[in-house]
Design brief:
The protein has 125 residues and is an all-alpha fold. The protein has eight helices and no strands.
Length: 125
């Protein structure tokens, strides 16, 4: 997460903004941020069986959603003048997603955790 913020909101955004302006910098760095998440998005159907039947739209939707998040993070970076604010927001969103996935009832999670909610064991896939 910190590497992504340094790469996309500090180095890439800064270089593009200086050369092409704010709009182009936000568009390009956010688009590349979305594409950066193609490989992790390909794992979503495996991790959530409900998404398997929608495999054709899951990855593009995740990439678009991540690119939109990149636009928001660029805006936070621009308005705060600091890399700390978008990094904190990025961490909070990732933590919220992890907690939601961890706590959401599904056959995959229930199998990993034993008899939910009395036994809370988590094992990596």
């Amino acid at each position: 997460m910190l590497l992504e913020e340094v790469a996309f909101r500090s180095v890439l955004y800064g270089l593009l903004r200086n050369r092409y302006g704010r709009f182009c910098a936000t568009t390009l760095s956010s688009s590349l941020f979305g594409l950066w998440h193609v490989l992790p998005s390909r794992e979503l159907p495996r991790l959530n069986p409900a998404a398997d039947s929608r495999r054709a739209i899951v990855v593009p939707a995740a990439v678009v959603a991540t690119a939109v998040a990149g636009v928001v993070l660029c805006g936070v970076r621009r308005h705060s003048g600091s890399l700390l604010a978008p990094a904190a927001l990025h961490w909070a969103v990732n933590a919220g997603g992890f907690l939601t996935a961890f706590l959401a009832p599904s056959s995959t999670i229930s199998t990993r955790m034993g008899s939910w909610p009395t036994e809370r064991r988590w094992a990596p896939p």
